[in-house]
Design goal:
Number of helices: 13
Helix content: 55-70%
Radius of gyration: 33 Å
Largest sheet: 5 strands, mixed
Shape: elongated
């Protein structure tokens, strides 16, 4: 029993000693880091330092703040340096580190302010072979909250750093930003610039799997007569039903959209090479008894509608006629109309 108590006491003493040693080790490490930082501060006050030596010391002090996760201390140190030394050619780099610290803290609006300040007030320099202004523009495009700002930054990237970017991708992004900002003429111009690039049809843009199709549709739709659209879905449905009832293939051909009309299976994609082959309804109406559902399919929405029809052919008798609302704010007279955009072959999956 006495031996057991002795063992427990010994274990407790060892645990206390371990914790104490650990605390002492941490304290010693912190003291050493503080001493190093103090020595660097003292070195920084040496008036005999040349430009490169001063840069190295400031960079090391900033790195120590970052390593200690003292972002507030880092920001205070760097912003005071810039304020007290307005002629320092490395100010763009110190403010870049400041902006990055704010990003790490989740303060994106403040980070945006400093990134933009660098572009407006600081000369560009190369850090490890990379332009600070280029890095700022890349960050600003990611965090800026307004299309107008992103448009400015995209244009600056294209104008200043064409060798560092994929201009094909940027023309597409610029066009979509102009759309978001309701600058339709500029959107059209940049979609056309995108389509003129040799890799436009094959480029893979993250988050934009149908970039080429969407750009092509925007440009082609703008250049078309748009005379196949109807003011409402009921008007379009009534016209199509009447033409089918009368076996009026000529009218059906006229109602089909003249831009990107597709005919495909439910498994296919509109971008497939054989999904947009031109054909006349005449070939499928002659000698066949075409019928249709009394109402639109239950899966129809306020922007899309499906009409089930059948009897078109022996192999695939069921066709779903696909109608959709036109999304083209560039032309207010057409925007919100309805078009017959395609045909899904076969029963729904």
């Amino acid at each position: 029993m006495i031996l057991k108590k002795f063992c427990l006491c010994a274990a407790s003493v060892c645990a206390i000693l371990f914790i104490s040693c650990k605390k002492n080790s941490v304290t010693a490490a912190n003291n050493f880091q503080d001493e190093v930082q103090n020595q660097l501060w003292q070195l920084l006050d040496d008036p005999g330092l040349n430009e490169k030596q001063r840069f190295s010391i400031i960079n090391q002090i900033a790195g120590n703040y970052r390593a200690d996760k003292d972002l507030h201390g880092l920001i205070l140190f760097l912003t005071e340096r810039v304020e007290q030394n307005p002629g320092d050619i490395y100010n763009s780099y110190w403010l870049l580190m400041t902006a990055d610290a704010y990003l790490s803290m989740g303060a994106e609006p403040v980070a945006e302010y400093y990134f933009d300040k660098i572009l407006q007030q600081c000369q560009d320099i190369l850090v490890k072979g990379q332009s600070v202004h280029f890095m700022c523009l890349q960050n600003l495009i990611q965090i800026s909250g307004s299309p107008a700002s992103r448009i400015k930054y995209f244009n600056e990237l294209i104008a200043r750093f064409p060798e560092n970017i994929n201009t094909t991708e940027l023309y597409f992004h610029l066009a979509t930003e102009y759309e978001n900002d309701s600058q339709w003429d500029q959107a059209l111009k940049n979609y056309m610039l995108f389509l003129r690039q040799p890799d436009a049809a094959t480029i893979q843009i993250l988050g934009e799997p149908n970039a080429y199709k969407n750009a092509r549709h925007f440009v082609d739709f703008n250049n078309s007569s748009k005379d196949w659209t109807f003011e409402s879905l009921p008007a379009l449905e009534a016209a199509v039903r009447k033409a089918i009832t009368n076996y009026d293939w000529y009218s059906l051909d006229k109602y089909k959209a003249k831009v990107n009309f597709f005919s495909m299976s439910w498994k296919q994609d509109e971008t497939d090479a054989n999904a947009q082959e031109e054909f006349s309804m005449r070939s499928f109406m002659r000698g066949n008894r075409i019928r249709m559902s009394d109402s639109m399919d239950a899966d129809s929405t306020p922007n899309e509608a499906y009409l089930r029809t059948w009897g078109w052919s022996t192999y695939i008798p069921v066709w779903y006629l696909y109608f959709r609302k036109v999304d083209f704010p560039m032309d207010p007279d057409i925007h919100g109309n309805w078009e017959w955009a395609g045909i899904y072959m076969g029963n729904k999956l």
